[in-house]
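Replying to the earlier thread about multi-chain prediction with a worked example.

Input:
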Amino acid sequence: MKLALGTVTGHGRWLLLLAVAAVAAALYAWGAEGHADRDHLLGWAERTCAATSAAFPASSAEPVPPAKKATVFPRGARCEAEIRALVAFRRDAAESTAKLLADAIAEQDVKRSHDVASAARAARDARAAANIMENANAHVGPDDRVGRDWFDALNRAGGLHDPAR
Amino acid sequence: MTRPANLPRPPVAVAVATPTRPSAELLACPVAPAGFPRGETATMPAATRFAAIRLASAYAAVASQLRRLIDWNDPTACAGVPLSLAKD
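Result:
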């Protein structure tokens, strides 16, 4: 080293000094930028964690029996766990909601198709009963006497059961 | 990252199906009343006959609609009871 410096003479020394100064200035600027970045990230972490109600700094929790030692959480551990829990919560809530909706739609479809079949059957039966009633009514003479056939038809049209049964 | 001990449990998803089932009383299957006696004869003017027919048909229609409404809410409530009251 001494030999290397010894060979540098005159303007060479100044040039070397300049080069060393330039490197030092660059290192200084790099360090300052690193500091600024770190402060910025720390601020961001504090704000983000404050929003989750789990503070960023390291903390400890009272021991839960049978453990005797307090649990120590490194800086950001609680906050990270909280964020993960929140993300999982959002995912689970969306999944559960989608499943509920899909189940409700499927159930509604089944009910609707059952009801359409029931309505068709009921309409068919009502039509048949109305025809029989009309027939029985047409057979009533001018004396307006009604008998068994007419009452049977009326009971059928009303879905009423035979009182003798 | 594994979960550190002592952290609060993650919240449980809150999608909840709300109960919409009507009360048991509303879901009771309609029972048709006894109709007119079959062995009797009567003198009934046309207007009276038509009124009786209207009443009977309206009762059957309402009972059928109620039955469908009950089936919609609880398919087991009227299980075993014939669908149409008008059927013999």
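The radius of gyration of chain A is 46 Å.

Feel free to reuse this layout for your own posts.
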